[in-house]
What does this fold into?
Amino acid sequence: MEIASLHFLVAEGEAVQRELLVGMLRHLGAQHVTPASDGLGALRLLEIGLNPPADIAVMDLTLPGMDGLEVIRRLAEIDCRAGIIILASQSADVLFSVETMAEAYGLDVLGSSSKPITSARLQELIANYAGPPVEAEPGPPHPEFTFAEVGRGLQQREFDPYFQPKIELETGAVKGLEMFARWRHPEHGVLGPSAFVPVLESVRRIDFLDWCMIEKSVAACRSLHDKGIPISFSVNVDPSTLAHPQFVDQMTACLERHRILPGYVTFEITEASVLTSNPHFLERLLRLRMMGFGLAIDDYGTGRSNLQLLAAIPFSELKIDPSFVDGASRKRPIGTVLKSFLGLARSLSRHACAVGVETREDWDFLQGLGCTFAQGFYIANPMPVGEIPGWLGDWKNFF
It folds into this structure.
């Protein structure tokens, strides 16, 4: 976005520093710059709305009248949509904590810098501004379904697996597919999990969906193998399904029916679900790994894992939650946490997969960090198995 088209608010208590910042912005090409000499004045300008509205607020932490921390809190209360650049003479660890706090308040933090900021650093932070958030058009709401209606859909085989490719960042090679359940409703079209998963969970029959998707996913895997595409896939499984006494036998029979080896199947289990020291559940996980199945911890970063317990779980892959991937390249607190997750995976000799890659910037950032795998809308949307061969051809041409 061109700097000339942006409106800047500069909140700095020291007159000389304020003038230097205004001059620096104008030198970079800014045409709309509004100064503020204290925190209360800055808050009022952002609250009443400037004309044109402020796109980016460059703000010192030690503002007179109302310090930067209070201003940040108050900006969150008024739902401020401006990008925030934080300046301070404090140490880097304090700046990091301020960024983290502002992110937790829901503000669009473009970054921070110690004072005095250089023109190059200011330009770098401004480049993180992606524009005002665009309100997504609300899709047509799906009706509330009963368990009987969802059950009928399962019996009528209206549920199908869709697959999203997983890419090796270093080479661009397609290394697997993740399954997403979809309901091809005869009246409401293709519906996502929010339409049916809560219903099944409320009556503790999510296993109905799990087995339907496992069976269809293994069959889809067989169809791809028959086309000369020996690709693996992962499927989300509820712990209650996994813990069933007949799970291993039923899974073995399913693979035999479709002539698929266990190494082509990975079970994804949410981080919150594996936070248990139950020896029977750990035995089940170990047995599956020893049989050759893969195990992935899904939504990693959301469950507050006990690291000692995490190290004991025989998982082969750590799938990092999208909240730690999207925007990590420009938001230092998120990027720092992401780096620590990747370091943890490496220290445990496990692969890491970043989920939610939506931009080229995300891709490049993850590649630079040495992340193993990535998936997300930047690569491909989930698709029916019939579309996989064509997509693979397009992807090979792209790379």
